[in-house]
Amino acid sequence: MAGGTPNDYERGSMEIGEQSSTWSLFMLMTKWGSLAVAVGVLFLVLWFMPQGSFLTALVVSVVALALGIFFLREKPAAH
Asked: DSSP labels for the chain?
């Protein structure tokens, strides 16, 4: 076994700063990546559907992107 006795661990003694930073970055990338994928799919669906147009798809996608950015941005912490 890797050194020590099984009772060496003390609950709450582990430094979790790196784990917390990694989790925050993962959530940030997931949030913005999901918005990018959703806007991209929306654009392609509206452009290539029957009677679809590039300009309509572009306008709707830009509006959806703006709304997504508005609703997903970081809110200031209320204390």
From this structure: --SS-GGG--TT-S--HHHHHHHHHHHHHHHHHHHHHHHHHHHHHHHHSTT--HHHHHHHHHHHHHHHHHHHSPPPPP-
The C-alpha angle with vertex 35 and arms to 31 and 39, in degrees rounded to 5, equals 175
Task: List pLDDT tens digits, range 10-33.
Answer: 777 777 888 899 999 999 999 999
pLDDT computed for residue 12 by the predictor: 74
| pTM summary value | 0.75
